[in-house]
């Protein structure tokens, strides 16, 4: 039996992921990408390139010092889309 997580079938479950990568072979510059994965899709389809939502690309040369400053606009937009009921504790993000 599958547990229902949403009250409305139109609700969308998203997972966020962030990863850094190096653009060039010299390994002098890093770039950070924030992706959203639509959890409503079948697991075999979720991580296909055409279904990943590239939300933000943060240029280097190093990792961001204050990650929250980059995430704040995304959180505000998600809150607006959700109806201001969305909450996330950004204090524990490094």
Q: Write the H/E string, N to C.
A: EEHEH
Which geometry do the CA atoms define?
A: flat
Low-confidence stretches: none
Average residue-wise pLDDT = 80
Multimer state: single chain
**Strand residue percentage:** 25-35%
Number of helices: 2
Report on this model:
With 94 residues, this protein is α+β, with helices and mostly antiparallel strands. It contains two helices and three strands. The protein has helices at residues 43-46, 67-82; strands at residues 14-22, 30-38, 53-59. The chain has a three-stranded antiparallel sheet with strand order 1-2-3, with no helix packed on it. Strand 1 and strand 2 form a beta hairpin. The longest helix is centred in the C-terminal third of the chain and has 16 residues, at 67-82. The chain is flat, with a radius of gyration of 16 Å. The mean pLDDT is 80.
Give a quick summary of the entry.
With about 90 residues, the protein is of the alpha+beta class.
Per-chain topology:
Blueprint: E1 14-22, E2 30-38, H1 43-46, E3 53-59, H2 67-82
Features of this protein?
3-stranded antiparallel beta sheet; 94 residues; single chain; 2 helices; alpha+beta; flat; 3 strands
